[in-house]
Amino acid sequence: MVLTQRSNARRPTLEDVARWSGVSKSTVSRVVNGEPKVSPEAAVRVREAISALGYVPNQAGRQLVTRRTGAVAVVAAQPEDRLFLDPFFDCLLRGIRGELARHGAQAVLLFVDEPDDYARVADYLGGGHVDGAILFSLRPGDRMPEMADRLALPAVFGGRPLLRDGDPVRGQAYVDGDNRGGARQAVRHLLALGRERIATVTGPYDQEHSAAERLAGYRDALPDTAPHLVERADYTRQGGADAMAALLDRHPDLDAVFVASDLMASGALQTLRERGRRVPQDVAVVGFDDLVSISESTDPPLTTVHQDVAEMGRLLARLLFDRAEQHSGEDLPSAIVPTRLVVRQSA
Description:
Elements: H1 14-21, H2 25-32, H3 40-53, H4 59-66, E1 71-76, H5 80-85, H6 87-102, E2 106-111, H7 117-125, E3 133-136, H8 144-151, E4 155-158, E5 173-177, H9 179-192, E6 198-202, H10 209-221, E7 230-232, H11 237-250, E8 256-259, H12 262-274, E9 284-289, H13 292-295, E10 303-306, H14 309-325, E11 335-337, E12 340-342
Parallel strand pairs: 1-2, 1-3, 3-4, 4-5, 5-11, 6-7, 6-8, 8-9, 9-10
Antiparallel strand pairs: 10-12
Helix pairs in contact: 1-2, 1-3, 6-14, 9-10, 11-12
């Protein structure tokens, strides 16, 4: 049967789709709602009929049947202006949005910056506006894991959620990179190059789990490192520039630095250039994330620890849908994305 667009102005109905595709209304409903137990052949016929007729499901009725809104909250514990300046989060959000689109869902972006924001976000999440939540950029002891539990809302976390004392929150699904292992790779690479005075620019390790793990990996490779070779920054370009300046003031003879993000590393390279240090001849630099928009555009191109940030976003969305479909209440496995060193400097 060749399907053609109906020319009348009446809005196509579920019955029209069933008649055109030669299946029952219940089969059409299962395809529309993404339910299983539909043969591939029937699903193809239904989708062809939907396309040809221009059928648009009645969302209000669909929500009454499925109790789903087709929306997922993406909650960031970050100031809005900082989030959109960080290419890491841009890449992560692209992965999340792409996977949500595959499931016919859309993202609703929410920010938690001030203490009062928690009540506002809790009211929204508990109001039936979304089917689940992806939460990231949490600080240790953040209230959002407890809030998600209290609302009985399917939720997954970007980064492992921690209690205030640093212990992991039990029973929460999360996606994270191998921060500690990647940092070890970076520092061992610098040691293999014969570098002897290796400093690090770290993130705010009292606030960010990833920063604490990357600092731990640095110390795994250099257990006897002096505390004054460690400089804390804030995951921004300017923070990396300022931290590199502080390290050079204390240690003008340092010959390598592991910087805990590519964005901070780009700032560190700027400071080294201003101080007349050649990279990598005088000071070798290794970053973290392998954000191509940064690592391949710096001068020189940045040696860095690669993690697939977009895949982390996709995994967050997949894990959330798995959790939403789960009815047993059992914990879901979390995911750790592997890292690997990408060498772009010759020495």
